[in-house]
Design brief:
By secondary structure, the chain is of the alpha/beta class. The chain has helices spanning 43-49, 90-96, 115-129, 141-153, 168-177, 188-200, 212-228, 245-259, 279-285, 311-320, 330-342, 353-363, 385-389, 404-411; strands at residues 3-7, 13-14, 29-33, 86-88, 100-105, 133-137, 156-162, 180-184, 205-206, 236-240, 268-274, 324-328, 372-377. 37% of the residues lie in helices and 15% in strands. It binds pyridoxal-5'-phosphate and zinc ion (ZN). Pyridoxal-5'-phosphate binds at residues 113, 115, 141, 209, 240-246, 302-303, 348, 350-351, 378-379.
């Protein structure tokens, strides 16, 4: 057996295809590998795949397939995802007080967020297991992504959303792709509790980031970033944190890349939370002793999460990468978002946590001016148009009668 499931706390192992999201001991499961799985999984092979016409090679996820569980090509569901751009902007580097600040923009995925990378692997696993119905709780992007991949795979999907707290474009995607949408009169954490209970009773296959296959897919954000940089890793990787799936996946990806000899040193992770939804930040400040769930409130709805399910994994990855956790206010988030939008790059509010956080860590001297930084932008600008139009500073739409002299007068 080359790949299997393993508990991150008690180390008990399970069959890779066991239908379980948690260990008997209550802790989280991860996909683990025997070293023989990766004998023939090197940089050269991955680099060569970028030049072929093979369906799987052309996916920014499945190019790394040896490191993502164990699949027959026929069960792989791909749209294809990944292959996201890296941006540099003089003005944004200046904004953060850095010289070398790049952005890996995960909004350039098929449904507009990084969730597609994890979803591609989780839905492929569902197909491999012969599942017919998949589901999730979501602040919006997971449901849009799930709906797309389930539709593509011919599976039924059910998504649970906090009523009134999800941007319209994300709901529209879920509806359009054909998911059954259920609005829960509560917050994300209530929806999460509910869907876990339903999944335990076997009514659906859960593809939230508690599902270890989601995190395997999200590792490829880092692997592809390292490949983009010619395997010369940055000093820091900065990422927003909500349910902490990315923080967990990024640390695992970096450790595995290092163990395989793809990179010579390990970048440090910086996870940035919105101040109104920052239980991980508070725990970090408290030496990671425990996590106190909180009532979350922030304009960054994608990270409006008060009880992150991946806390145990994320804590270990922050330690393993000598990482840090920071928090930023809604005002800092929106100022950073405006700057990203004005640089022609654009992102949704939650994504701007990474620029706001990079700036804050630079201001505090934790990130040095000359250090190389990659900030991950998690979602596309069109994901939350309400936030743009409600922003009094950004939106100044002039209204005028259809009269050319009046229009000219206005522009003068
Ligand atoms: C899901 C999501 C996040 C939060 O990521 P986690 O892995 O849950 O920490 C951040 N930004 C956007 C746009 C998201 O959709
Ligand atoms: Zn266990």
């Amino acid at each position: 057996m080359a790949a299997f499931l393993r508990c991150v706390t008690c180390q008990e192992s399970l069959d890779l295809d066991a239908l379980a999201y948690q260990c008997r001991c209550g802790s989280l499961l991860e996909v683990a590998y025997d070293s023989d799985q990766w004998v023939d999984f090197g940089r050269e092979k991955i680099d060569n795949r970028r030049t072929t016409q093979n369906r799987l090679d052309q996916s920014g996820v499945w190019r790394f397939r040896e490191g993502l569980g164990a699949f027959n090509d026929s069960s792989i569901v791909s749209l294809p995802e990944g292959n996201t751009p890296i941006f540099f902007s003089e003005s944004l580097a200046h904004y953060a007080g850095l010289i070398d600040l790049k952005f890996k923009h995960e909004g350039y995925n098929p449904s507009g967020s990084f969730k597609d990378r994890g979803m591609s692997v989780a839905i492929s696993q569902a197909k491999k297991l012969g599942i017919t119905t998949v589901g999730c709780a979501s602040t919006g992007n997971t449901s849009a992504s799930l709906a797309a991949f389930a539709a593509h795979a011919g599976l039924k999907s059910v998504v649970f959303l906090p009523a009134g707290k999800v941007s319209l474009s994300k709901i529209a995607q879920a509806v359009g792709y054909g998911a059954q949408c259920v609005a829960i009169k509560g917050d994300f954490d209530d929806a999460m509790k509910m869907v876990q209970e339903i999944a335990r009773e076997g009514l659906l296959y859960l593809v939230n980031s508690i599902n270890p296959f989601r995190l395997e897919g999200q590792k490829t954000i880092i692997w592809e970033m390292l490949q983009d940089l010619n395997w010369d890793p940055p000093d820091w990787i900065v990422v927003p944190g909500g349910n902490l799936g990315n923080t967990s996946a990024f640390g695992k990806a970096l450790r595995e890349a290092y163990a395989m000899g793809w990179i010579a040193n390990l970048p440090r992770l910086a996870t940035i939370q919105a101040a109104g939804a920052s239980p991980f930040y508070k725990s970090y400040k408290d030496g990671f002793a425990s996590l106190k769930p909180e009532k979350a409130e922030t304009i960054a709805t994608a990270v409006r999460i008060g009880n992150p399910v991946n806390f145990i994994k994320a804590r270990a990855e922050i330690s393993a990468t000598r990482g840090v956790v920071e928090s930023v206010t809604d005002a800092e988030i929106m100022t950073a978002k405006r700057a990203i939008d004005r640089a022609g790059i654009g992102c949704e509010p939650s994504s701007a946590c990474s620029l706001a956080g990079a700036k804050k860590l630079r201001d505090q001297g934790i990130i040095k001016k000359t250090e190389r930084v990659v900030a991950v932008l998690t979602g596309h600008m069109l994901k939350d148009t309400e936030a743009i139009l409600a922003d009094g500073v950004a939106s100044k739409i002039l209204e005028v009668e259809a009269d050319s002299s009046k229009v000219k007068g206005l522009l003068r």
